[in-house]
Specification:
heterotetramer; A mainly alpha; B mainly alpha; C mainly alpha; D mainly alpha; A: mainly alpha; two-stranded antiparallel ribbon; 2 strands; globular; C: mainly alpha; 11 helices; 62% helix; MnhB (chain C); Na+/H+ antiporter MnhB subunit-related protein domain-containing protein (chain C); cell membrane (chain C)
Chain lengths: 544, 119, 276, 142
């Protein structure tokens, strides 16, 4: 019973940590208090999220019905291996970022507001991942978005920061509103908002035509409603994940945010968009849903977008002069690669070549985790380098600062190798999985594109390394800056990067496990089965 | 097949060596450049060398590699940097709404398919 | 007109056509329909039904029942979005306040004429009374904490316009700190209420859920549906009460922030150091 | 292929269909407003129209046609506090769908919160740039 409670308690309990913080900010003047408070809140989330992941990987899918209502009536959190794993990674990286903030924000007013918004970001991230309800996903996306907008504009007297925030926020609001309109179509036709219930109606109802006791059957034309809902939802999710035509906000917003926030935005927030795409295209509109032509068309569009954003991100990365902007474009490139990985599941691939299907998805999810670790690490390192170089973000000004701080440089190398895909690192294996998936599926051009994207982005990473470590310049090193705490954090992340590569046999099989839990027809069936068991369990006392 | 130890080791070491080679090559290329600052040529910053190197009219021989890439892709980068990433919200909106239109077209085609089939 | 503009127009037309086609071919179902969806019937049957004591909210208002009980989690996070928006606004306006004290000011000289001031003085208690009634009857009639709170925030707005912001901050003492305190009180109340049954269940050692209101078939505890003979629908009354405070204080805070003279903001912003 | 069939195609039915078409059109026009108007304030206004169109659409989806002229559809509020079984049954026969209304309540508050924050950001943009024209608010590029 304790175990199940931990699934439900995690996100709502974090809300309380955030609610009281602005008042504390007015009453307590000691900045150290807030650093410790936020770190404790993050630690709490990290412990619970890790425990939840452990629970899911040992005991199977977990459903927590809020208020004790049977799911389509109330909201339920549904954890399968995919969101449990991503939730754990998110909470752990957020813990690192929160502790790093204590160094970064040493003497800045508004610390309480900053931590409130950062906690809001964490609530949004984990809530988006955990929820099993499509409308609750909308609400959580808004929690996530509004804290992200506010954090991007945190340096309110800096014109660029406010500009980035309003550009991000204006179209972000459009994206979430369009998703809401899509949800109206979903509710109107399917009569339910629960993801597992929707998955049942779209996939299994054809074979097993028993209406759900609470939500019945269809109330409109499901084909048409799916077309509208998927078009609008996908636009919103690609905005959040910054895939090619919706990527414009990212290179503005991520560099202008405070550095720890850049790490959270680049490493974690874009993942939520990809997660939502995956959840919609593989669980709700699952691989054997009856809207199969629509799904195929959307996946092909996603593949093209993935390649396009991979190429554009890599090309734009090469010409940047600003270290954080370079890393932001690299995020676009990597999200493109992840999308290439998860766009493999067209019906023909599934039917003719299930190996490629599993390989591509496993590669996509694996690369998402690898990118999270590597990118969070690189942004945090860039924060150290910028602080050491006296606050300038230009690569020219950083001029070889890293040479005087070998541990920081080591972490930088680890992160770059992770993203570049140098062999013993995780990035290599995930790219290899995506590559071999498309070779297997008989689409070698896509595989070549994966290589091409990596090759182009190599130039950018080399430039990053050259400018921050090898370059012989005369940077004005701030000798007074102490960097032991952030160095420890980035080294820990670097070791995590190394581990994702060295333990690749184990992690790859775990990724296959994860793919089996959400993307195969059997996995979708299990997802629905857990939901339905909860429903029966909760309703049995009443319905007789 | 891809986790076969021998193949994996071969690929691993091959890529490692290749990467090292490239890294060394690039480093040796861009290591020492005479800087000749001329601020009126603001050009893209293609590789590790400082902005001032790229803006020289006569490229030093050891930056020829980058000059080559740059010469090839001048048009591409002009489009990417000046036209696409212009920083103006309304021009982003054009790209974004075209993508929304694309998704709508997919939806419309699907609807047409279903209706013609008599769904 | 450039090519992009044409494509943009074409794309939006495509979206319009898609929506129109969806409407025509029942993408939204039969509209208007004499029947409602099954889920809606369940909500209508169970919102106040003493015959199914294990599956009811005990509130005659189905919308409030959904907002705070069936889908209470949504509303908690909706409150959080509003909270974060105000924190974001506070973060933008950090350090920008009215002058301390306000002793040198002749507060009574600001504002509109005596007639409007007197009328406002009469009106403000009425506004507060009506909005409190909207909030506290939220579980019985249309309305609720948010609606009541936003109506109540009209009172300080009215005073702000008619008497001046200095009057609100220095005479009425509705300063930033007091509003944040009131808001935190409301928010923590909501937070505690959502966990109340779970904590109760953990204490006496029975199964319970977050956001549980009435007893369920496998979780036998719940909050009382009525207090002293009048229906309070368990947690719903408390949620509405606390939401009333949180929202009223939140809006007042926003109005106070927006009414700070622009000169002060520019003074603070000019030459401020910022991070990287 | 059956077209939208409106029961009792009278003036009310016509108005209902007309309203739905208007909402659809409104969605697209306000989208154009957000994408193409240069002023941030105009964009925010268009955004309000966009989200309100979505909300009205949701309410319309939950609307219930009158079963007959003598028992019109009612708001989803019971008017007795201790109902008998027959009260609940007759209530469920005429009340409109409460779920879209609850969803809209949530969406309205969220839309308001986002709008509030965007207004503060626009104010700040005006303080820093002296304009709200997005063609001039473009320091970040490339």
């Amino acid at each position: 019973m304790i175990g199940l409670n931990s699934v439900g308690v995690l996100v709502p309990s974090l809300v309380g940590f955030a609610f009281i913080l602005p008042l504390l900010g007015k009453l307590i003047k000691n900045v150290k208090f807030f650093h410790i408070y936020a770190a404790l809140a993050s630690l709490w989330a990290a412990i619970l999220a890790t425990y939840n992941a452990y629970l899911v990987f040992t005991a199977g899918t977990q459903v927590y019905p809020f208020g004790g209502w049977p799911p389509p009536l109330g909201i339920a959190y549904e954890l399968d291996k995919l969101n449990a794993l991503l939730g754990m990674v998110t909470a752990l990286v957020m813990l690192a970022i929160t502790i790093y903030s204590a160094w970064y924000l040493k003497d800045y007013e508004g610390v309480a507001y900053y931590y409130t918004l950062l906690l809001g970001l964490e609530v949004g991230l984990i809530g988006c991942l955990y929820t099993g309800d499509a409308f609750n996903l909308f609400v959580m996306l808004e929690v996530l978005s509004i804290s992200a907008y506010a954090l991007v504009g945190f340096y309110r007297s800096k014109p660029e920061a406010v500009e980035a925030a309003i550009k991000y926020g204006m179209f972000g609001a459009v994206a979430t509103t369009l998703y809401f309109v899509g949800l109206v179509f979903i509710y109107a036709t399917f009569g339910t908002l629960n993801m597992a219930d929707l998955a049942f109606k779209l996939t299994f109802y054809v074979y097993y035509p028993v209406p759900n006791p609470f939500s019945g059957t269809f109330f409109g034309n499901p084909y048409v409603a799916s077309a509208v809902a998927l078009a609008l939802a996908l636009w919103a999710f690609t905005y959040k994940s910054a895939a090619f035509p919706n990527h414009f906000w990212l290179p503005d917003a991520h560099p202008e945010a405070p550095t720890p926030v850049s790490a959270a935005l680049s490493g974690l927030v874009v993942n939520v968009g990809v997660y939502a795409i995956v959840r919609f295209l593989y669980t709700i509109f699952g691989p054997s849903a009856f809207v199969v032509q629509l799904r195929d068309a959307v996946l092909i569009a996603l593949l093209v977008l993935g390649i396009a954003s991979g190429l554009i991100g890599a090309l734009m990365m090469v010409v940047q002069e600003d270290i954080k902007r370079l890393l932001a474009y690299s995020t676009i490139s990597h999200i493109g690669l992840v999308l290439v990985g998860v766009a493999i599941g067209t019906s023909s691939t599934l039917n003719q070549n299930s190996l490629a299907y599993v390989l591509g998805l496993a590669g996509g999810i694996y690369h998402m985790v690898n990118h999270t670790l590597g990118k969070a690490l690189l942004f945090l390192v860039s924060g150290i380098l910028i602080a050491l170089a006296g606050g300038s973000r230009k690569l020219d000004d950083i001029g070889g600062v890293g040479r005087r701080y070998p541990l920081v440089s080591l972490a930088l190398f680890l992160g770059v190798f992770q993203l570049l895909g140098v062999p013993p690192f995780g990035g290599f294996f995930s790219k290899l999985l995506i590559y071999s998936a498309y070779m297997e599926a008989g689409m070698p051009y896509v595989s070549l594109m994966v290589i091409l994207i990596s090759a182009i982005s190599l130039l950018g990473y080399v430039k990053l390394i050259y400018a921050s470590v090898f370059k012989v310049g005369s940077p004005k090193v701030e000798q007074t800056t102490k960097v032991s705490l952030p160095t420890a954090i980035v080294l820990a992340l670097g070791i995590a990067c190394l581990v994702t590569g060295l333990a690749t046999t184990y992690i790859t099989s775990m990724m296959f496990d994860v793919v089996g839990s959400f993307a195969t027809p059997q996995g979708v069936y299990d997802y629905w089965q857990s939901f339905f068991n909860t429903l029966l369990n909760l309703a049995s006392g009443v319905m007789r | 097949m891809f986790l076969d130890p021998l193949t994996a080791t071969l690929i691993l070491s091959g890529v490692l060596a290749f990467t090292a080679l490239i890294t060394w090559f690039i480093y040796s290329v861009v290591k020492s450049n005479p800087t000749n600052v001329s601020e009126e040529f603001k050009e893209p910053y293609l590789a590790g060398e400082p902005t001032s190197t790229l803006s020289r009219i006569d490229a030093p021989s050891n930056t020829l590699f980058w000059g080559f890439i740059y010469g090839l892709s001048r048009k591409l980068y002009h489009y990417l940097r000046e036209r696409m990433h212009s920083g103006i919200l309304n021009e982003w909106g054009e790209y974004m709404s075209v993508y929304l239109g694309l998704l709508s077209l997919i939806g419309l085609l699907f609807t047409a398919l279903i209706l013609l089939r008599g769904g | 007109m450039r090519l992009g503009r044409y494509l943009q127009a074409f794309s939006l037309v495509a979206l319009a056509v898609l929506l129109a086609v969806a409407l025509t071919y029942k993408g939204l179902g039969d509209l208007p329909n004499p029947a409602v969806r099954d889920l809606a019937l369940w909500y209508l049957y169970t919102t106040l039904n003493p015959e199914v004591p294990n599956m009811t909210v005990m509130s005659p208002e189905a919308v409030t029942a959904i907002v705070w009980d069936y889908r209470g989690l949504d509303t908690l996070f909706e409150t959080m979005v509003f909270f974060l928006a105000i924190v974001g606004a506070l973060a933008i306006m950090r350090g920008i306040t009215l002058n301390e004290g306000g002793e040198g000011l002749h507060i009574e000289r600001y504002g509109l004429s005596l007639i409007t001031k007197t009328a406002t003085k009469l009106l403000v208690p009425l506004i507060i009374g009506v909005s409190a009634s909207i909030a506290l009857h939220g579980h019985l009639t249309p309305g609720g904490g948010f609606q009541g709170g936003s109506a109540a925030a009209v009172a300080p707005l009215l005073v702000l316009v008619i008497f001046s912001t200095y009057y609100v901050v220095f005479k009425l003492r509705l300063s930033e700190l007091s509003m944040i305190s009131l808001r935190t009180l409301g928010l923590m109340g909501i937070y505690m209420t959502s966990f109340a049954t779970l904590i109760l269940g953990l204490v006496i050692g029975v199964n319970a859920y977050i956001f549980q209101n009435m007893p369920k078939a496998n979780a036998f505890i719940g909050l009382p549906p009525a207090l002293g003979g009048s229906l309070i629908s368990g947690t719903l009354f408390f949620f509405n009460l606390f939401e009333f405070f949180a929202v009223a204080a939140g809006f007042t805070l926003v109005f106070i922030l927006l009414s700070i003279p622009e000169v002060k903001a520019r003074e603070v912003l000019k030459g401020e150091e910022h991070g990287h | 292929m059956r077209f939208l069939k409106v029961r009792n195609m009278d003036i009310n039915g016509f108005l209902f269909v007309f309203m739905l078409s208007t909402i659809m059109l409104n969605l697209v026009i306000s989208l154009y407003g957000v994408f193409a108007r240069p002023s941030l304030i105009k964009k925010i206004i268009a955004l309000t129209i966009l989200s309100d169109s979505g909300n009205v659409l949701a309410i319309a989806v939950g609307f219930r046609d009158w079963p007959s002229g003598w028992s019109p559809s009612t708001p989803p509020v019971l008017n007795v506090t201790s109902p008998k079984a027959s009260d609940v049954v007759s209530f469920a026969r005429v009340a409109v769908d409460p779920l879209p209304q609850a969803l809209v309540l949530t969406a309205v508050v969220i839309g308001l919160a986002v709008m509030l924050f965007l207004v503060f950001l626009t104010l700040q943009i005006y303080r820093l740039y002296g304009t709200t024209d997005v063609r001039k608010v473009a320091k970040l590029k490339g």
